[in-house]
Structure formats: C-alpha cells, structure tokens
Backbone:
C-alpha cells in the first residue's frame, strides 16, 4: 500500500478505536492511538500474510503462521487498535467491533485466543510476556528454516518488567535475526511519565548492551518515517542479531486533547468528548 | 432473618485506601509500595500525607515483592500493592521464598480480584489466587466483603506480625457492615443465626448470601449465614458449631471451586464432621469481559445461585 492509502486507513482505525472505547465506556485509547501508524503499516504494507480467503469472504487464519510473517501484541491493553486493524484487514466483520469488551464477545478487553478471534495467536494483557513468546516463534521459524519475520510490539512502561530483560538476553544468544521488536517509547504510563514513575534511561544503550541492533524511529506517528524504519529494520535482519525499533510516539496521537498527557492511557471519552475526537478524525473507509 | 440495609455503595479498594490513610497517621512503620497503579489502589491520601513512606516500583512486581521483604527485615511494615493477578500468580515464587519462607512481615494488598473486575477480561480476572495463597505455608489470607470491613482488615493487619494476603475488588458494592467493627483476624462473623442450612460466604458474595437468606426466609427456610473473611487461618470452630446445628452447608466465593474457601471448608468437614455441601464459585473456567453484574450472573455467583444450591443441599440432608 502507498503512504497516502496507509494514512487513510490509519485515520479510520483511529476512529474505530475511539468509538470502540466509547461504546463500552472502558479501554485504553492513548496507547492505541499512538501505535496506530505502526500496526497499520505492518498489516497493510510490511508483513507477508496468507491472503487466501474462506467461503465466508474473510482471510484464512492459521495460528501456526507457516510461511507468514507474524505479529504479537505484548502491550495487550491497546487491543482496540489490534481489533480494528485485524477487522479492516479482513480477518473478521468490522461490525463485530461494536461488541468490544461486552459480554459474550470475541473482542475481549485484552486480546485472547480463548474465543477464537481470527488474527490473535496469544493472549496478552499481563505485561512483559510478549517478547518471550516472540522469541519462541522466531526460534521455531529458524528450526523450520522458514525465512519469515516475527514482529512484537511492547510499551515503554512495560520495559520495566524483569521478564523483558530475560527475553532480551535470549534473542541475541540464539541469534534470532528474524525478530523485530518495537518499543512504543511514548514516555507515558498509568501513574505519570515513565521518567517519573521508573526511569527507563537509555533504552537504546541497554538493548545494544544486550546484543541487539537498533533502529531509531523519531516520529512513529509519521507514516513515511514508520515505513522507513520498518525497511531499515528489515535490512538489518539476517546478520546474526535481533533488531529493535525504538519508536517515539505521542500517546493519544490524532486527538488533540488526548495528547501530551498520560490521562488518556485508560480512560473512555464521554459523548461530548467522542464528538470532539471524531471531528478530528475523518471517516475514510466507513464506520462499523 | 436479621435485617441488613445500606445507604451507599462503595468499592472495597476505597476501604483499603481509607485504612492506609489511617495507618499513615497511627503507624509510623507502615509503608506503601505500588507498581504503577496508584489510583486504582486508592493510595492517593496515604501518599499525600506520607510521601516518604511510599515507594513507586514501576511495572516490576517481582522486584516490588523483594523490596518489600527488604523493608520488612529493616522493621518496616510494607504493604505491597497491585492488581490481584500481578500480586499473586505473577510473583508466586518471590512471595514464597523472600516473604513467606523468610518470615518477612510483608502485607500483599491487592485489588481488582475476581470476575467483578469486569471489562478488562480474563487476563486480569484472577480466580485462583486464594488457592495459591492458601496453600502457601504461614500465609494469612483475608478477603473482606465491603468498604468498612476492608478498612478494618487493612488496619488490623498492621499489628499482625507475619506475611498476609489481603484481597479486595474494583466495583462499588453495598456498605452494610459496622463502620466501627472490631476486625479479628481468623474469627468468623455471624451474620445471621439460623437452623436449616449454613451459608458460608466471603468477599462480594456475602451481600449475595444475605439476599439469598431473605429469599429463603420467604420460602420458610431459616439460613445461618457466616462470613469467613479470613480464609486462612480458618475459623474451624465457628463452622463446626454451625453445621452441628444445621446439618448442611453451602459455600459462596468469587473464586474457582478448586482450592478456595469451599475447598478449605470441605477439607475441614470431611476430616471432622462429614456434612453435605454444595458450592457456589467458578467451575473450572476463565472469566471474560462484561459488566460485573452480567458476569456474576453468567458464572452463577449471585443470590439466585446460592438459593438454588441451598435447596439442593437441604434435599441431601
Ligand atoms: C504485569 C502487569 N502489571 C500491571 C499491569 C497494569 N497496567 C496496564 S497498562 C499499564 C501501563 C503500561 O505502560 P506502557 O507500557 O508505557 O503503555 P502505555 O501507557 O504507553 O500504553 C499497567 C501498569 C498489567 N497490565 N500487567
């Protein structure tokens, strides 16, 4: 997909996110909006996935992902972003977004495989576990001599979890040069800025010290820069080391009053706020 | 049936916050630790008054448990706080070795336990924590039922020496216990005396048990209702005395049937006084997203479910 088309898609995804969170009056718009450009770029441009469709017209989904690139969402609270991208990409009916976080839905508060939603390969929500899972998936692709890429997105607050660093030590040790991790470096978490809550300090130096190659993405809310960073990461693969993209984003990107604060990490907009947000987000592909 | 009414609904976690605020004044050794969930744990008042006795640990629960153990060794009384899921299963070995086995005087105080966490869904809805904590040697396990009881339990724990797990919840629920109650760890609260069946309930299910008692009364069934807020050590005497009179029992808890209060009671009864028992709890399944009320109904954890089990168990007498 071309940049302009990706931007059009991302605009609709942002609308979906805000509407979903409003619809159930719960969920996490801030990080979802901040990571929209990346996850849109991955699914609509960068990743090679099985394009075949079933009789129902939706994409065929195999959890094993043989021959496919695959993506894990470790910071599972940004589930509305994941669900919108999966639905818009054709894994399931966009109408199902209306069930987000409601009883008997496949669109659980945090991504789950339990209800068999196509596109989800692992449950996430309890932070700090996704990089380890991605390690395993990348290891499996190596064992099978499958030349495909494993992507995993994490939060920057999430980097405070000890398990992240156990996983960070594993990937270079096993030369997982088919693994691309992305850190959403928005400098915000629930209790405030990451600098104040628990300083991550120099994430780049940390990952380098652990044996990773790094790519700086200075504006993860600029679609061209996102594409360039993904291309740069790909060019670094196959050299015996895993790659991490340190992606600077703005929490709440796209909705002015949700930006420059941690307050919208996990807060739902009321009716008035919804209208104000939607006024800033063009309906490009049709609402669900 | 003794009448219980309420004028307001409050969340049990706010009872914890209020208890901490009092401890901030009365107990200079009490400290609070949190893992990026200060507002959820209602710690704002404590932190405002005692900024030096609060430690923000970031999203790093395993480290937080170890830090709490270190503070305890130095003579502080640390309350390590987060969501129940991340203060139990995620850090089980840290609690086991650095806290329980080491006899460190750490209070693990956790919110958002059970299904009533609601929309966040099963990843966060821990329904196994009582089982984990109950099986841990030397751990005291408490699951209070309303705002006042949670506040009282929080305060009582500060003078109790030894590791403890205090579990409370997210939603607002009726406040029906005495605001000036004396909270005695390990001592059951007789909610209502009756003769036909014993209902033993903990946490959010106590109010449901009272509702069930009223329904049963109209049908001519006189239920004895006991609140077990301390799952461990269990008030064995209160339970045995009650079933001696009623001859049957129903347990109710917001937890898996496996390993929770029900199991603790059944273990006691099968050893000391075999009695027909029916159990209200989650039966070997994960939860899901939904409103607390929808979930409690779907998973059979409300007054109606208790009434049904009471009828079943009475038929088995
Ligand atoms: C193990 C664990 N601890 C705590 C939480 C509660 N929690 C959910 S999101 C969050 C903050 C995450 O911060 P960050 O990774 O920076 O994501 P962002 O706020 O930028 O979306 C916390 C503490 C959790 N989900 N999992």
Residues:
């Amino acid at each position: 997909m071309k940049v302009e088309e990706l931007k059009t898609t991302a605009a609709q995804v942002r609308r979906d996110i805000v509407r979903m969170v409003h619809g159930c009056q719960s969920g996490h718009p801030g990080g979802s909006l901040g990571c929209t450009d990346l996850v849109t770029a991955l699914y609509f441009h960068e990743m090679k996935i099985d394009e075949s469709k079933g009789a129902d017209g939706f994409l065929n989904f195999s959890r094993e992902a043989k021959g496919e690139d695959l993506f894990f969402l470790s910071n599972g609270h940004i589930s509305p972003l994941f669900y919108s991208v999966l639905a818009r990409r054709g894994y399931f009916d966009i109408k199902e977004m209306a069930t987000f976080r409601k009883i008997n839905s496949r669109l659980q508060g945090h991504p789950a495989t339990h209800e068999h939603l196509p596109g989800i390969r692992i449950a996430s929500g309890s932070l700090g576990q996704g990089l380890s899972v991605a390690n395993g998936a990348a290891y499996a692709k190596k064992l099978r001599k499958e030349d495909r890429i494993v992507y995993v997105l994490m939060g920057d607050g999430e980097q405070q979890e000890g398990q992240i660093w156990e996983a960070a030590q594993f990937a270079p040790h096993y030369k997982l040069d088919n693994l691309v991790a992305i850190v959403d470096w928005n400098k915000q978490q629930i209790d405030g800025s990451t600098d104040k809550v628990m300083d991550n300090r120099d994430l780049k130096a940390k990952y380098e010290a652990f044996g990773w190659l790094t790519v700086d993405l200075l504006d993860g809310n600029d679609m061209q820069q996102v594409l360039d960073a993904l291309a740069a990461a790909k060019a670094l693969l196959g050299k015996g080391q895993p790659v991490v993209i340190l992606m600077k984003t703005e929490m709440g990107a796209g909705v002015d009053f949700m930006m420059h604060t941690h307050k919208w990490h996990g807060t739902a907009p009321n009716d008035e706020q919804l209208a104000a947000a939607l006024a800033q987000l063009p309906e490009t592909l049709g609402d669900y | 049936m003794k009448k219980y009414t309420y004028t307001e609904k409050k969340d049990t976690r706010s009872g914890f916050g209020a208890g901490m605020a009092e401890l901030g004044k009365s107990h200079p050794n009490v400290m609070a630790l949190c893992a990026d969930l200060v507002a959820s744990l209602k710690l704002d008042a404590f932190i405002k008054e005692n900024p030096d006795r609060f430690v923000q640990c970031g999203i790093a629960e395993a480290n937080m448990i170890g830090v709490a153990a270190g503070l305890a060794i130095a003579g502080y009384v640390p309350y390590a706080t987060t969501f129940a899921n991340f203060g139990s299963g995620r850090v089980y070995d840290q609690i086991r070795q650095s806290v329980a086995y080491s006899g460190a005087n750490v209070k693990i105080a956790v919110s958002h336990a059970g299904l009533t966490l609601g929309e966040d869904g099963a990843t966060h809805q821990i329904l196994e924590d009582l089982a984990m904590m109950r099986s841990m040697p030397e751990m005291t396990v408490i699951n209070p039922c309303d705002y006042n009881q949670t506040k009282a339990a929080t305060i009582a724990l500060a003078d109790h020496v030894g590791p403890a797990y205090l579990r409370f919840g997210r939603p607002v629920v009726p406040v029906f216990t005495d605001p000036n109650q004396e909270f005695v760890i390990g001592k059951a609260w007789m909610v209502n005396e009756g003769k036909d069946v014993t209902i033993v309930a903990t946490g959010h299910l106590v109010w449901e048990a009272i509702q069930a008692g009223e329904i049963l009364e109209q049908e001519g069934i006189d239920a004895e209702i006991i609140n077990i807020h301390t799952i461990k050590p269990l008030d064995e005497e209160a339970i045995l005395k009650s079933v001696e009179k009623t001859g049957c029992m129903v347990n109710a808890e917001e937890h898996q049937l496996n390993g929770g209060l029900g199991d603790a009671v059944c273990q006691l009864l099968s050893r000391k006084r075999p009695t027909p028992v029916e159990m209200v709890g989650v039966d070997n399944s994960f939860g899901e997203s939904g409103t607390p009320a929808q979930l409690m109904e779907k998973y059979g954890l409300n007054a109606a479910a208790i009434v049904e089990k009471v009828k079943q168990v009475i038929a088995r007498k």
